């Protein structure tokens, strides 16, 4: 089956932010991650999302990260900047900063913790979308925000000219059908559900395992798009241990992504900011075994 259009490419990775030993942002290391991703199968990157440890970075740091990544990526792919917070004014500030720094689009997650109702969610999305000329990718991840984006909000948000895409990580691939009918292009937000999302009409993926498996994920999508579903499934199946090691353990996300980058030689450390803590030696050993089992090391 032919996949729908993918505005930012088929395979994007929600990339980690590198930190120096003193906790400061390592812009050279962050640029190296972006270069690695674009060289190994990714069509673009998402910076300053959860995997980029956005809850712990400042507005100034976020702007510096976008600029460093844009310089590293050049014209090879899209750079999407996460601007989601639980404060509308703060998200507007981040969106304006991302636009000034040269981002190609922004990623806007449902406000978390304060859990606004549908009217509040729509207000948040509307205020941010109208503050910038950049395209907006909504991010639906109830496991982190406490609630899914209601369909009533999707129905109204698509009326905003700049809101065109969704990173969907609710665990329900069937929802893609309704979102496509509304006019959205949908990116899978869960590595382990990629094939299910593609079957239901997703255009691609925003990955975390893509730090180590960008080329393989790109091959899965290419084979599926070419109608070789058996080949796509075979390639995908070989990646399952890596998905489980990167996203299926208690201490996961930025921590596992950075440990994978260290194992690959992209970074020389796996520093994170609190409240996250780096993988310990046993966790790194398990991650190494899984990546080796998936032929990624």
TrEMBL record:
Enzyme Commission no? 4.3.3.7
User: Is Chloroplast among the key words of this record?
Assistant: no
Subcellular localization, as worded in the UniProt entry: Cytoplasm
> Which is a GO BP term held by this UniProt record?
lysine biosynthetic process via diaminopimelate
Which residues participate in pyruvate binding? 51, 206
What are the catalytic residues?
A: 139 (proton donor/acceptor), 167 (schiff-base intermediate with substrate)
Cite the annotated pathway.
Amino-acid biosynthesis; L-lysine biosynthesis via DAP pathway; (S)-tetrahydrodipicolinate from L-aspartate: step 3/4
Q: What does this protein do?
A: Catalyzes the condensation of (S)-aspartate-beta-semialdehyde [(S)-ASA] and pyruvate to 4-hydroxy-tetrahydrodipicolinate (HTPA).
Q: What is this protein called?
A: 4-hydroxy-tetrahydrodipicolinate synthase
Where does this protein come from, organism-wise?
Answer: Marmoricola endophyticus
Q: What is the lineage of its organism?
A: Bacteria, Bacillati, Actinomycetota, Actinomycetes, Propionibacteriales
């Amino acid at each position: 089956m032919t996949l729908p259009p993918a505005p930012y490419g088929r395979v994007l990775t929600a990339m980690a932010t590198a930190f120096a030993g003193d906790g400061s942002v390592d812009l050279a290391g962050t640029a190296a991650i972006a270069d690695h991703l674009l060289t190994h199968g990714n069509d673009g990157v998402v910076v300053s999302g959860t995997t980029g440890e956005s809850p712990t970075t400042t507005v100034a740091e976020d702007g510096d990260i976008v600029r460093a990544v844009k310089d590293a990526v050049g014209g090879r792919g899209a750079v999407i900047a996460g601007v989601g917070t639980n404060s509308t004014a703060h998200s507007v500030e981040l969106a304006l900063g991302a636009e000034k720094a040269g981002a190609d689009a922004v990623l806007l997650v449902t406000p978390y913790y304060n859990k606004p109702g549908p009217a509040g969610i729509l207000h948040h999305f509307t205020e941010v979308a109208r503050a910038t000329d950049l395209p907006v990718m909504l991010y639906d991840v109830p496991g982190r925000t406490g609630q899914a984006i209601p369909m009533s909000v999707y129905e109204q948000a698509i009326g905003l000219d700049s809101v065109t895409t969704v990173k969907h990580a609710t665990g329900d691939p069937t929802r893609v059908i309704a979102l496509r009918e509304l006019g959205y292009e949908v990116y899978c937000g869960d590595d382990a559900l990629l094939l299910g999302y593609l079957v239901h009409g997703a255009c691609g993926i925003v990955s975390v395992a893509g730090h180590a498996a960008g080329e393989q994920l790109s091959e899965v999508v290419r084979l599926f798009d070419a109608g070789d579903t058996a080949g796509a499934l075979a390639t995908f199946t070989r990646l399952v241990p890596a998905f489980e090691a990167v996203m299926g353990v208690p201490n996961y996300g930025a921590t596992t992504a950075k440990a994978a980058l260290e194992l690959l030689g992209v970074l020389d450390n796996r520093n994170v900011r609190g409240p996250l803590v780096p993988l310990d030696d046993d966790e790194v050993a398990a991650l190494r075994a899984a990546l080796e089992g998936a032929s990624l090391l």
